[in-house]
């Protein structure tokens, strides 16, 4: 009778986990270094261009454009093989991580710029103007996108950017769309193109609003308070709001700034609601296809919960002003890095070929947000 010797337990070298983590970090470093260097250059360039553009050009949009240029040049070199292909392969893990994780961290820190008491100071009329404008604009652009047969992802990003807070809102919605299990192969590349289109539209039509809305406010005889409400509820980027309202009066600027912050608060329910709808559709589609529901992502992304937690912390008033100021600067840095990384994956030729319908959608969206905002101000804040 023979006895089978007991099987020895598998041997794991000591500190295997630590070695794996070091390897993972090492894979990210080239791309992270490129994103960090580009961020430093872009922020410096944005400060230099600020006086020339009057603050209308967001550093996030500048970062996306720069990323698209670098990505196009690198992509052409990679296509030729050799050393360039090796460099591209080394850079990709770090830039992809930046476009995903750093972007979500920026959304969380964005919450530290918002205090609920500041929003409540608008009064029920001001808050009603914000809610009506955001909800009406979001719904109108979704309907216009379907009418113009613009791809749903592009329409959703444009609706979010125009109705809430420009590039930051587009960034937050991007993270939700990345988690859509129905996207299929090639979806990340297409999504980057959609993000580029949405950000370009926010920049173009937001810049037009800087000139148009103060002139229209004067022609319509709006009070400073009404003008501030209208500009804050209608213009996309914070910098654009400041540039537009600042030409009206100091009182209009103060009202417009708080109104803009109130719009940003609505980022969480819009993003969470979209995530819930996508999750429900995915589950229903899987059941109809006989694939079972399987595991699915939570309908409310963790970074949205983090954003809400940051808003609550800021609203308590326990954070020193120096901390909130620093958080604002860090948020900008994170968004610029993420936008540069996203831009590196943009297919510029494809974007140019498919931009006509989104451009029309942006024009109609700009009309929608300014028209709905003006109607809300005249009806709710006479």
Automatic annotation (TrEMBL):
| Keywords annotated in UniProt | Cell membrane, Membrane, Transmembrane, Transmembrane helix
Where located?
Cell membrane
Q: Which InterPro entries match?
A: UPF0324_pro (IPR018383)
What membrane topology is annotated for this entry? Multi-pass membrane protein
Signal peptide: which range, if any? none
Q: Which Pfam families match?
A: Cons_hypoth698
Which superkingdom heads the taxonomic lineage of this protein's source? Bacteria
- TM helices/strands, residue ranges: 28-50, 56-77, 97-116, 122-144, 156-177, 197-222, 229-255, 261-279, 300-320, 326-346, 358-381
Stated family:
Belongs to the UPF0324 family.
Record's protein name: Sulfate exporter family transporter
